[in-house]
Protein backbone atom coordinates (compact mmCIF):
# COMPACT_ATOMS: atom_id res chain seq x y z
CA UNK A 1 0.00 0.00 0.00
CA UNK A 2 1.51 3.28 -1.10
CA UNK A 3 0.40 6.74 0.05
CA UNK A 4 1.56 9.78 -1.87
CA UNK A 5 1.29 13.00 0.09
CA UNK A 6 2.63 16.35 1.17
CA UNK A 7 3.72 15.85 4.76
CA UNK A 8 2.70 19.41 5.72
CA UNK A 9 -0.73 19.30 4.04
CA UNK A 10 -3.81 18.89 6.25
CA UNK A 11 -5.48 16.66 3.60
CA UNK A 12 -2.54 14.29 3.76
CA UNK A 13 -2.66 14.39 7.56
CA UNK A 14 -6.37 13.46 7.54
CA UNK A 15 -5.65 10.41 5.37
CA UNK A 16 -2.64 9.33 7.46
CA UNK A 17 -4.59 9.79 10.69
CA UNK A 18 -7.42 7.54 9.44
CA UNK A 19 -4.96 4.87 8.21
CA UNK A 20 -3.01 4.98 11.49
CA UNK A 21 -6.22 5.00 13.57
CA UNK A 22 -7.32 1.83 11.80
CA UNK A 23 -3.92 0.19 12.13
CA UNK A 24 -3.13 0.04 8.41
CA UNK A 25 0.54 0.20 7.41
CA UNK A 26 1.56 2.05 4.25
CA UNK A 27 4.65 3.25 2.48
CA UNK A 28 4.75 7.07 2.41
CA UNK A 29 5.94 8.70 -0.82
CA UNK A 30 6.73 12.40 -0.41
CA UNK A 31 5.16 14.37 -3.25
CA UNK A 32 6.69 17.62 -4.51
CA UNK A 33 4.27 19.86 -6.43
CA UNK A 34 5.24 20.27 -10.10
CA UNK A 35 8.61 18.47 -9.73
CA UNK A 36 7.03 15.07 -9.13
CA UNK A 37 3.76 15.67 -10.94
CA UNK A 38 4.72 13.50 -13.92
CA UNK A 39 5.58 10.59 -11.60
CA UNK A 40 2.29 11.03 -9.73
CA UNK A 41 0.31 11.06 -12.99
CA UNK A 42 2.09 7.96 -14.17
CA UNK A 43 1.36 6.15 -10.90
CA UNK A 44 -2.31 7.19 -11.11
CA UNK A 45 -2.49 6.61 -14.85
CA UNK A 46 -4.16 10.01 -15.08
CA UNK A 47 -2.66 12.05 -17.88
CA UNK A 48 -4.97 15.05 -17.96
CA UNK A 49 -7.09 17.03 -15.51
CA UNK A 50 -6.09 18.09 -12.01
CA UNK A 51 -4.16 15.77 -9.71
CA UNK A 52 -3.82 16.29 -5.98
CA UNK A 53 -2.48 14.43 -2.98
CA UNK A 54 -3.10 12.46 -0.86
CA UNK A 55 -3.38 9.62 -3.33
CA UNK A 56 -3.19 5.97 -2.42
CA UNK A 57 -2.53 2.89 -4.52
CA UNK A 58 -3.49 -0.56 -3.25
CA UNK A 59 -2.59 -3.34 -5.69
CA UNK A 60 -3.81 -1.72 -8.89
CA UNK A 61 -6.58 0.38 -7.41
CA UNK A 62 -6.08 4.13 -7.13
CA UNK A 63 -7.74 6.17 -4.34
CA UNK A 64 -7.29 9.75 -5.58
CA UNK A 65 -8.82 11.76 -2.74
CA UNK A 66 -8.54 11.95 1.07
CA UNK A 67 -12.16 10.87 1.56
CA UNK A 68 -11.65 7.80 -0.66
CA UNK A 69 -8.63 6.87 1.45
CA UNK A 70 -10.51 7.41 4.71
CA UNK A 71 -13.39 5.24 3.46
CA UNK A 72 -10.88 2.56 2.45
CA UNK A 73 -9.39 2.65 5.97
CA UNK A 74 -12.89 2.37 7.46
CA UNK A 75 -13.61 -0.69 5.37
CA UNK A 76 -10.31 -2.55 5.63
CA UNK A 77 -8.84 -1.45 8.96
CA UNK A 78 -9.58 -2.34 12.57
CA UNK A 79 -10.66 -0.30 15.58
CA UNK A 80 -13.53 2.11 16.26
CA UNK A 81 -15.26 3.57 13.24
CA UNK A 82 -14.76 7.25 12.38
CA UNK A 83 -17.98 7.24 10.38
CA UNK A 84 -20.66 5.58 12.54
CA UNK A 85 -23.89 4.97 10.60
CA UNK A 86 -25.92 7.46 12.62
CA UNK A 87 -23.33 10.24 12.31
CA UNK A 88 -21.67 9.58 8.93
CA UNK A 89 -23.51 12.28 6.99
CA UNK A 90 -22.80 14.91 9.61
CA UNK A 91 -19.17 13.81 10.00
CA UNK A 92 -18.60 14.01 6.24
CA UNK A 93 -20.21 17.40 6.07
CA UNK A 94 -17.78 18.58 8.78
CA UNK A 95 -14.98 17.31 6.60
CA UNK A 96 -16.37 19.30 3.66
CA UNK A 97 -16.58 22.42 5.83
CA UNK A 98 -13.02 22.01 7.12
CA UNK A 99 -11.73 21.34 3.58
CA UNK A 100 -13.41 24.52 2.29
CA UNK A 101 -11.81 26.54 5.10
CA UNK A 102 -8.47 24.88 4.31
CA UNK A 103 -8.75 25.85 0.65
CA UNK A 104 -9.12 29.46 1.81
CA UNK A 105 -6.26 28.95 4.26
CA UNK A 106 -4.02 27.75 1.43
CA UNK A 107 -4.15 31.35 0.17
CA UNK A 108 -3.25 32.72 3.61
CA UNK A 109 -0.27 30.39 3.87
CA UNK A 110 0.98 31.07 0.34
CA UNK A 111 0.85 34.83 0.97
CA UNK A 112 2.81 34.44 4.22
CA UNK A 113 5.38 32.20 2.55
CA UNK A 114 6.35 34.92 0.07
CA UNK A 115 8.47 36.68 2.64
CA UNK A 116 9.52 33.56 4.53
CA UNK A 117 12.96 32.45 3.36
CA UNK A 118 13.26 29.61 5.90
CA UNK A 119 9.82 28.24 5.00
CA UNK A 120 10.62 28.37 1.28
CA UNK A 121 13.84 26.49 1.91
CA UNK A 122 11.99 23.78 3.85
CA UNK A 123 9.41 23.39 1.08
CA UNK A 124 11.86 21.83 -1.38
CA UNK A 125 13.38 18.33 -1.01
CA UNK A 126 16.37 18.12 1.32
CA UNK A 127 18.57 16.44 -1.30
CA UNK A 128 18.58 19.43 -3.68
CA UNK A 129 21.73 21.63 -3.78
CA UNK A 130 21.69 25.00 -2.03
CA UNK A 131 21.91 27.18 -5.17
CA UNK A 132 18.84 25.52 -6.69
CA UNK A 133 16.60 25.63 -3.63
CA UNK A 134 15.55 29.27 -3.58
CA UNK A 135 14.74 29.71 -7.30
CA UNK A 136 12.86 26.42 -7.26
CA UNK A 137 10.88 27.32 -4.15
CA UNK A 138 10.01 30.77 -5.53
CA UNK A 139 8.85 29.40 -8.87
CA UNK A 140 6.86 26.68 -7.09
CA UNK A 141 5.17 29.31 -4.95
CA UNK A 142 4.36 31.42 -8.00
CA UNK A 143 2.98 28.43 -9.92
CA UNK A 144 0.88 27.41 -6.92
CA UNK A 145 -0.47 30.96 -6.71
CA UNK A 146 -1.52 30.74 -10.38
CA UNK A 147 -2.99 27.26 -10.04
CA UNK A 148 -5.09 28.20 -7.02
CA UNK A 149 -5.97 31.68 -8.37
CA UNK A 150 -4.47 33.64 -5.53
CA UNK A 151 -5.02 36.93 -7.36
CA UNK A 152 -8.80 36.39 -7.29
CA UNK A 153 -8.99 36.63 -3.48
CA UNK A 154 -7.44 38.61 -0.65
CA UNK A 155 -6.06 37.73 2.76
CA UNK A 156 -9.19 39.30 4.29
CA UNK A 157 -11.57 37.11 2.24
CA UNK A 158 -9.58 34.02 3.11
CA UNK A 159 -9.48 34.89 6.79
CA UNK A 160 -13.23 35.57 6.78
CA UNK A 161 -13.91 32.08 5.37
CA UNK A 162 -11.71 30.53 8.04
CA UNK A 163 -13.44 32.60 10.77
CA UNK A 164 -16.83 31.30 9.62
CA UNK A 165 -15.66 27.70 10.05
CA UNK A 166 -13.99 28.46 13.39
CA UNK A 167 -17.17 30.09 14.73
CA UNK A 168 -19.20 27.09 13.58
CA UNK A 169 -16.75 24.77 15.36
CA UNK A 170 -16.95 26.80 18.56
CA UNK A 171 -20.76 26.71 18.44
CA UNK A 172 -20.83 22.96 17.72
CA UNK A 173 -18.51 22.20 20.65
CA UNK A 174 -20.66 24.37 22.95
CA UNK A 175 -23.71 22.32 21.90
CA UNK A 176 -22.05 18.93 22.22
CA UNK A 177 -20.49 19.39 25.66
CA UNK A 178 -17.02 20.36 24.44
CA UNK A 179 -15.16 17.07 23.95
CA UNK A 180 -16.22 15.78 20.52
CA UNK A 181 -18.12 17.67 17.83
CA UNK A 182 -20.73 14.94 17.40
CA UNK A 183 -20.58 13.49 20.91
CA UNK A 184 -18.17 10.67 19.90
CA UNK A 185 -14.75 10.73 18.22
CA UNK A 186 -15.40 10.82 14.47
CA UNK A 187 -14.00 12.13 11.21
CA UNK A 188 -15.54 15.49 12.17
CA UNK A 189 -12.96 15.88 14.94
CA UNK A 190 -10.06 14.81 12.71
CA UNK A 191 -11.12 17.28 10.02
CA UNK A 192 -11.58 20.20 12.41
CA UNK A 193 -8.32 19.41 14.25
CA UNK A 194 -6.34 19.43 11.00
CA UNK A 195 -8.09 22.65 9.92
CA UNK A 196 -6.61 24.35 12.99
CA UNK A 197 -3.13 23.69 11.58
CA UNK A 198 -3.67 26.87 9.54
CA UNK A 199 -4.29 28.88 12.74
CA UNK A 200 -1.36 27.52 14.77
CA UNK A 201 0.49 24.27 13.94
CA UNK A 202 0.11 21.48 16.48
CA UNK A 203 3.12 20.35 18.51
CA UNK A 204 5.81 18.73 16.35
CA UNK A 205 5.58 15.50 18.39
CA UNK A 206 2.34 14.81 16.55
CA UNK A 207 3.01 16.38 13.17
CA UNK A 208 6.55 17.30 12.25
CA UNK A 209 7.03 20.74 10.69
CA UNK A 210 10.12 22.92 10.28
CA UNK A 211 10.38 26.33 11.99
CA UNK A 212 10.00 28.27 8.73
CA UNK A 213 6.89 26.35 7.69
CA UNK A 214 5.51 26.72 11.22
CA UNK A 215 5.77 30.50 10.86
CA UNK A 216 4.12 30.35 7.42
CA UNK A 217 1.20 28.34 8.79
CA UNK A 218 0.67 30.57 11.85
CA UNK A 219 -2.00 33.25 11.88
CA UNK A 220 -1.31 35.14 15.10
CA UNK A 221 -4.59 37.12 14.98
CA UNK A 222 -6.70 33.99 14.71
CA UNK A 223 -4.56 32.08 17.21
CA UNK A 224 -5.29 34.71 19.83
CA UNK A 225 -9.00 34.82 19.08
CA UNK A 226 -9.48 31.04 19.04
CA UNK A 227 -7.24 29.89 21.87
CA UNK A 228 -10.09 27.70 23.20
CA UNK A 229 -10.23 25.78 19.91
CA UNK A 230 -6.47 25.29 19.88
CA UNK A 231 -6.69 23.81 23.40
CA UNK A 232 -9.47 21.51 22.18
CA UNK A 233 -7.33 20.50 19.17
CA UNK A 234 -4.32 19.75 21.38
CA UNK A 235 -6.46 17.52 23.61
CA UNK A 236 -7.81 15.63 20.57
CA UNK A 237 -4.26 15.08 19.29
CA UNK A 238 -3.02 13.98 22.71
CA UNK A 239 -5.78 11.45 23.07
CA UNK A 240 -6.22 10.21 19.51
CA UNK A 241 -2.99 10.79 17.60
CA UNK A 242 -0.18 9.18 19.59
CA UNK A 243 3.19 10.77 18.86
CA UNK A 244 5.53 8.38 17.08
CA UNK A 245 8.45 9.05 14.84
CA UNK A 246 8.03 5.95 12.69
CA UNK A 247 5.13 7.27 10.64
CA UNK A 248 6.59 10.75 10.28
CA UNK A 249 8.34 10.26 6.96
N1 LIG B 1 -10.05 16.85 -2.61
C1 LIG B 1 -8.68 16.59 -2.40
C2 LIG B 1 -7.98 17.87 -2.12
C3 LIG B 1 -6.57 17.70 -1.72
C4 LIG B 1 -5.75 18.95 -2.05
O1 LIG B 1 -6.28 20.04 -2.25
N2 LIG B 1 -4.43 18.76 -2.13
C5 LIG B 1 -3.56 19.83 -2.46
C6 LIG B 1 -2.87 20.21 -1.18
S1 LIG B 1 -2.14 21.76 -1.26
C7 LIG B 1 -2.52 19.34 -3.47
O2 LIG B 1 -2.28 18.17 -3.58
N3 LIG B 1 -1.88 20.23 -4.17
C8 LIG B 1 -0.78 19.84 -5.00
C9 LIG B 1 -0.86 20.46 -6.35
O3 LIG B 1 -1.87 21.12 -6.64
O4 LIG B 1 0.10 20.28 -7.11
C10 LIG B 1 -8.55 15.61 -1.22
O5 LIG B 1 -9.31 15.74 -0.26
O6 LIG B 1 -7.69 14.73 -1.30
Q: What strand order characterises the main sheet?
A: 2-1-3-4
**Largest β sheet strand count, sense and barrel closure:** 4 strands, mixed
Q: What ligands does this structure carry? A: glutathione
Mean pLDDT: 95
Number of strands: 4
Residues in β-strands, percent: 5-15%
> How many structural units, i.e. domains?
2
Low-confidence stretches: none
Q: Count of helices?
A: 11
Describe this structure in words.
The model has no long low-confidence stretch (mean pLDDT 95). The protein has a 4-stranded mixed sheet with strand order 2-1-3-4, with helices on both faces. It has helices spanning 10-21, 37-44, 66-76, 88-113, 117-122, 130-147, 155-176, 187-195, 211-217, 220-225, 227-240, and strands at residues 2-5, 27-30, 55-58, 61-63. The protein folds into 2 domains: 2-76, Glutaredoxin (3-Layer(aba) Sandwich), CATH 3.40.30; 88-240. The two termini are 15 Å apart. 35% of the residues are buried. Helix 1 (10-21) runs parallel beside helix 3 (66-76), helix 1 runs antiparallel to helix 8 (187-195) and helix 4 (88-113) runs antiparallel to helix 7 (155-176). It has 11 helices and 4 strands; from the N terminus they run E-H-E-H-E-E-H-H-H-H-H-H-H-H-H. A hairpin with a 2-residue loop joins strand 3 and strand 4. It is of the alpha+beta class and 249 residues long. The structure holds glutathione. The site of glutathione has 12 residues, from helix 3.
Features of the shown structure:
alpha+beta; binds glutathione; 2 domains; 4 strands; 11 helices; single chain; 249 residues
Amino acid sequence: MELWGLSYSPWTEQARWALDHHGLAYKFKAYVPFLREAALRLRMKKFWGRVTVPMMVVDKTVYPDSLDIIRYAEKHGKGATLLPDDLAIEAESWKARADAALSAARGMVLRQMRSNAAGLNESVPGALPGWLRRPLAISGLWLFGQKYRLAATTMNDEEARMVEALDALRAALARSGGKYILGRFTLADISAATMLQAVLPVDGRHWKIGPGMRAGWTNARLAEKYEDLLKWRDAIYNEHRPATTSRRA
